[in-house]
Amino acid sequence: MPLKRKDLLGLYIISGAEIKEILDTSEAMKEIFTRSVKKIPTLRGKTIVNLFFEPSTRTKSSFDLAAKRLSADVMSISKSTSSVMKGETLLDTAKTLEVMGADVVVIRHSIPGAAEFLANNIRASVLNAGDGAHAHPTQALLDLYTIREKKGKIKGLKVLIIGDIAHSRVARSNIWGLLKMGAEVRVAGPATLLPLEIEKMGVKRYTDLDKALEGIDVINILRIQLERQARGLFPSINEYRHFYGINQERINNDDILVMHPGPMNRGVEIESAVADGNSSVITEQVTNGVAVRMALLYLLVGRNNEDEKIV
Amino acid sequence: MKKLFKNAFIIDPSNDLAGKYDLLLDADKIVAIKKEINQEGCMIIDLKGKILLPGLIDMHTHLREPGFEEKETIKTGCEAAAAGGFTTIACMPNTNPVADNQATIEYIKARAKEAVVNVIPIGSITKGSSGKELAEIGFLSEAGVKAISDDGNPVMNSEIMRRAMEYASSFSLPVISHCEDKNLAGDGVMHEGYYSTILGLKGIPAAAEEVMIARDIILAEMTGAHLHIAHLSTARGVELLRDAKKRGLKITAEVTPHHLLLTDQKVKGYNPDTKVNPPLRSDRDRKALCKGLKDGIINVIATDHAPHTYEDKLGEYDLASFGISGLETALSLLYDNFIDKNVFTWEELLDFMAYGPAEILGIKHGGLKKGSTADITVFDPDISWKVSKEKMKSRGKNTPFANNVLQGRVVLTVVKGNIVYNNMNGEARILYDN
Ligand SMILES: [Zn+2]
Questions:
Q1: Model pTM greater than 0.90?
Q2: Looking at chain B, which residue has its C-alpha nearest residue A195?
Q3: Which end of chain B is least crowded, N or C, by CB within 10 Å?
Q4: A16-32 and A282-301 are packed helices; what angle lies between their axes, rounded to 10 degrees?
């Protein structure tokens, strides 16, 4: 069953059933990793373009690897957003990709809505690999996948997302995905990093970390951009660590799944003992990221050839 | 040749008109309004089923000339105004050069002579609208400006704003304030609230506008100046004004059609045509603005016509320019949403769009009576039409109402006795010599 949509722009528009479909497909993809030949011919002859307007080695290599394991032709275009002064640049790029016959365009951009703009102007499927503070659906899906893999379910779990929610696309996509899968979602952080009316999304909002931690099953720790301090959003790194840093003392319970989308500021938002501890699944998130991205590429291209099967 | 308008439904509360009349023009003057006029040798225009109004005034437009002619010129902006039923428009000084000097005002006036509707220039408050030093407000007044404003930018320095108000009072010029605390607004691109949160776009809080309204009210009270608040957009702003008016201060305010009709929810989908400053606010704000108008707290509806090129409004939301091209859709939007639905009467609308702005700008609007200058708008409530970017007269095709089907449309605009816009047979023609 291919996805019923041309693009994957965010988890806000996608149903719980579709998310389940993606996670199930990811499971089949992950199984391929255990084979001696970690490559299948499913997307042979298809062209996947990685269009990165914002540097991200991790996400980009994850997509590269995913596409290659499916035997697709991969092309990477990197542009700095600072050189993008007007929308026509993105539109021109879209037209070029169209001519080159791209089947899927994976886009990373620093401006919210850029993926949607591209999707509206191109016939190829668009996979949002992060657009500003708006959405990062593949990261959220790999987080959901990891939770389901480790906890056996998502429904009914209490998940806490901690840190800079205001500027985080990871937080937003996680919130939509977790809620659609039936989890209880809490967000915590300094009030200056919690966006206005976030409760309307259906989450509980905390500025007191210890209260937020009560009874949780999963904690997703977001990276703190150190430049937020310069913009007056919190007074010092020291103070942030004291009130919102996750250390062993705060979560001395091995049942709490510890996640972080990376890259980490060790000793700031997360103490090394936690990052490397027993309940941390941070490295597995990276592995699962490849499986989830393989699943999505397959499902998006699959909309054109429904009869092709994995295996 | 004399023009005789037959069978129109004429509405003009200031001259006690609300009914079927004939109206006769000779050159630029109205010479008779009677139940029935029959005269030989006239151009006869049958307006059966149509509504004839005193010419509308938009006191807040951006005509972009000089300096940004690719966005609009005085000529094209006035064509858009005529197509929207406006016979007089005031233009903001944020041109290049800024209209902070007599020469630029003279240039605008010269260009406006060739245009189809009346243009009233507004001068800047500070040199270069940079908020640092007062412009030569007295000379601007002598050159003919009817108000001063740094619109597009706030006057952030309270001391400068105080002096501007004090100084402008001696020339009886209203100070039109673009109320926005730049620090609070930051690099926001839409209203800060639920929708900015889920869309991941940077927000402009309502407070950015409200703290400046509060400051300006305090300064207006201190100086006794006439303060006019441009494009009011928040519920708290309406309350601040309600309070100020209760205390008898000389404060007026305007609201735009888009703030009366749209909310931040419209930004979903990231259409840059919804990007405007101040931003589209919450539904609670929108409702408070409608009520503020009804209660008389807000005096005027102005379009804040802000035309931009196709490229300015293309692509990523953050990079697009702020502004909506508003002249051509205003009256139909207001008719369709308010008059046709019995929210406002035509009489109220004429206060908001003709008599209110005339009074604030200190210009005479004789309305529809014998001896008055013939500035007239004719509206056909039976036409329904689809807003089409391609067909807009303005160079700026940036409207969030594109493809909306609206009820009612301007069919005739008459300026100083000349028919400058004729849409009686659906051709929507601008006429330069008649
Ligand atoms: Zn303004």
A1: yes
A2: B197
A3: N
A4: 110
